[in-house]
Amino acid sequence: MPVLKALLVNRRALLNRQKKIITMSTQQLKTTKNNNAFSKYTLMVLFTLTSILIGYYLITRAFPFLIISEENYGPYFFQRAYWVFAHVIFGILATLIGPFQFIPQFRNKYLAVHRKLGQVYIFATVLGGLSSMYLATTSAVNLTYSSGLFTLGFFWVAAALMALVAIKNGKVELHKEWMIRSYILTSAFVIARLFVDVLVSLEIASRIEAITLTNWAGWVIPLFLAELIIQGRKI
Ligand code: HEM
What are phi and psi of 233, to 5 degrees? Predict the structure, then answer.
């Protein structure tokens, strides 16, 4: 009899423990769901704001170069019209394709499209980067300005090729990391123009100072911030 009693007590304790675990898991599930909803909402807001910014700078600063005329280009760019035209086409392509590649739902549902767009993106960044290296050597602002653009162009090509080699070798995580770096470099076009506008309108810098500064800071700082997140998650 005492053995039966002990067994019953043990069973009750076990049931109570199971109940506790189920209640805890439900609470954890609710918290995780709330966190997920919050981060989804934050991501959507960030995505919308970034898209507006990208749209604004593409429409006002890049699209006018799609029609080759001295009026649209101005004498400075018109001398190198065909190089600028090619560079702008590749730049626009890369800027527009990039965001779709980062949406997991899109990637998972349309993997074949993701691959095709990825190939176009790599092609556009490599040719866009090569043309920008030529344009940098023929620009006439100052050495800091042209060296910033030349180096950016070089890393634009390098990051895209690293992402390509990583995926060809089946290293998906490395591919994702290099794609993040690559799109940050692609976004330098928007980031630099945004900062030039802010610095000049707040009279913090002259136009020349602002474009020279942002040709370096406009991509080195975002790239390093991204690196803190990418590497920080592994610590
Ligand atoms: C991220 C790497 C990029 C590099 C290294 C780069 C480099 C350059 C260079 C060297 C010039 C000529 C500047 C001069 O002669 O003073 C230039 C002009 C231009 N680039 Fe890029 N570019 C990049 C990305 C882009 C992207 C993504 C777009 C388009 C979405 C773009 C659109 C333009 C336009 C419209 C011009 C001519 C007008 C202007 O300077 O605002 N570029 N770029």
Answer: -65, -20
* Cβ–ligand 1 contact at 91 (below 6 Å): yes
Please give the model's pTM, rounded to 2 decimal places: 0.85
Ligand 1 center from residue 89 Cα (angstroms): 10
In sequence order, what E strands does 52-173 have?
none
Q: Report the nearest atom of ligand 1 relative to the CA of 57.
A: 30
Of 25-34, 130-139, 147-156, least confident by mean pLDDT is 25-34
Two tokens at 177? 């990391």
Contacts of 128 (CB under 8 A, 6+ apart): 87, 90, 91, 93, 94, 156
Q: How far is CA 212 from the centre of its chain?
A: 23
**C-alpha distance across the termini of the chain, in Å:** 57
What are the structural domain ranges in the chain?
A: 67-232
Does the Cβ of 98 fall within 6 Å of ligand 1? Answer: no
> In this predicted structure, what is the pLDDT of residue 20?
65
